[in-house]
Amino acid sequence: MNRVPMTPEGYQKLKDELDRLIKAERPKNIQDIAEARAHGDLSENAEYHAAKERQSFIEGRIQELQAKLAMADVIDPAKINQSKIAFGAKVKVVDIETDTEYEFTLVGPDEADVKSGKISISSPVGRALIGKEVGDVAVVKAPARTIEYEITEINFV
User: d(Cα 107, Cα 88) in Å, to the nearest integer?
Assistant: First the structure.
């Protein structure tokens, strides 16, 4: 079984979602099914079919979250050697060609969210940044062009 790196925050977020599904969403959905069933003929009962479909979604998501949590390898960035870019690092870089500054946080695949600057350590940019120090240049081969990022700052939050 392959372990998946995850920050403590990412692990807690998945755990919170699982708890919410089990303690709130599942019981509410069971109640919705019971109410819809009380309306009579199930063959033409749209509420019943919608509630059953929702039940299927909830159960699937619960299983998915349980599997992700079981495979999680929670890594605390504060305990990592902080002189080089590693998992959990918040990195400021400058695109050498366009002089545009970006800030990335390297996280596990399940936590990646490009809009909020969280990139997977297994993404092309993540792989290019790992092991670099301030002042180094990371080269990323993108479909449109080869991007060179100069590392200007590394923080571990």
Answer: 6
Contacts 24+ apart (CB under 8 A), 152-156: 152/92, 152/93, 152/94, 152/101, 153/91, 153/92, 154/82, 154/84, 154/85, 154/89, 154/90, 154/91, 154/92, 155/89, 155/90, 155/91, 156/77, 156/78, 156/80, 156/82, 156/88, 156/89, 156/90
Q: d(Cα 4, Cα 39) in Å, to the nearest integer?
A: 46
Structure tokens at 147: 């991007």
Mean pLDDT of 48-73: 93
Closest CA to 105 of 71, 113, 96, 70: 113
Distance, CA of 28 to CA of 31 (rounded, Å): 5
**Mean pLDDT highest for which of 16-25, 79-88, 107-116, 134-143?**
16-25
For 125, the token pair is: 């940019």
Q: Is the pLDDT of residue 80 over 90?
A: no
Q: Using the predicted structure, report yes or no on whether residue 102 has a pLDDT greater than 90.
A: yes
In this predicted model, what pLDDT tens digit does every residue of 36-57 receive, in sequence order?
888 877 777 888 889 999 999 9
Residue 1, pLDDT score? 58
